[in-house]
Amino acid sequence: MKTKGSSYIYGIRAIMTIIVLMFSIHAAAQENTGGKLKKIVQGTVDFIGYVLNDVDTTYIEKNRYNMTFMPEYSYSYEHYSFGTAGQSIGIVPDGRNVMSLNIGWRWLIVGYSFDLRENRPLQEFNTSLYSTRFALDLFYRKGSEGYKVNRLEGFGSGEGLLKDGSWECDGLTTVRQLGAGLCYAFNKRFSYSAALGQSTIQRASAGSFILGAGYNWQKLSFNHDGLDPIIKADLVDELKFKEVRMNDFSISLGYGYNWVFSKNFLAGISFEPAVSYKKARLEYTDNSSLQAGMNMDFMTRAALVYNNNRYYAGASLESHTYCFNKGDLYIRDGFGVLEAYIGFYFWKRKQ
User: Fold this and answer.
1) Closest to 139 (Cα-Cα) out of 318, 324, 345
2) Is residue 299 part of a domain?
3) How far apart are CA 244 and CA 280, in angstroms?
4) CATH no. for residue 148?
5) What is the pTM of this model?
6) pLDDT tens for each residue of 238-269
7) For residue 74, what pLDDT band results from cuts at 50, 70 and 90?
8) Helical H runs in the chain?
9) Closest CA to 239 of 285, 179, 275
10) How many domains does the chain have?
11) Which residues are paired to 315 by β-bridges?
12) DSSP string spanning 21-71?
């Protein structure tokens, strides 16, 4: 996690909660002398393991090693858009370049990272857990400066400000996001971790329908007085809010496909549209407005991987888009992460 003023980021990229829980339950079962409870507990552990990792071994090969070492480069971006029927404004920060050195044990990967450019203050925590058929994502993001106007519509002469590129602005002052997403692939011939976690290898092409659920909380602080005077003069009243706080609950049904186009090579993609219920409170100078409604969100994952069960290399992209529409007003935002990595396994498992 990076804190303001620091040049380093400490990232944990897997969740230990499920692992610790399973080991604790298993240990309790071993210590219990009552056979009935032991069977119940052991059955629960076996069922969880089956749901998370049951695979068709003619399509998926499990990793033969306990440990991995993986240097990684990542580039992250964000975008925000506010608009009405006749006017809209787009705001983006600079992209962020990060190098990480990661070491992992099976599902667990711990990374030490540093920003290559120190281009803007950011607090960030991202973590993902991928089993063969299960994906869990958690994230927290906070940005406070470095935003630019990159698109204007319906501003008359103000649109000429962008003819030579984006325009620095102090309008979007603070952005906070907290979210969690859970996805499950129905087909045991399809592996999330082969494309995104490097803990299994897809040996034959397969696809699967994917069911998911998610939650996203956002707080956007918007100071329209910080915009260029030419833009501010034409800004409609609906976009002169000071703050937006939004709660987003979603259910998704999508599809993913892993294409094995050559030995040890995999191209994977999944697209997961979500139906979401959003509650948004907009704070203006003299009043506030609470609005709610159904909208659509979108999540996309893509990967290209080479993995021979000893060495691997690849690239992946994960993108999230959130949309809120109510009457003539809309708010759209999203973020994505592009990663490139190489790595190798060591400490072979006992067969």
Assistant:
1) 318
2) yes
3) 7
4) 2.40.128
5) 0.82
6) 899 999 999 999 999 999 999 999 999 999 99
7) very high
8) 17-31, 35-53, 192-196, 229-234
9) 285
10) 1
11) 304, 340
12) HHHHHHHHHHH---HHHHHHHHHHHHHHHHHHH---TTTEEE--EEEEEEE
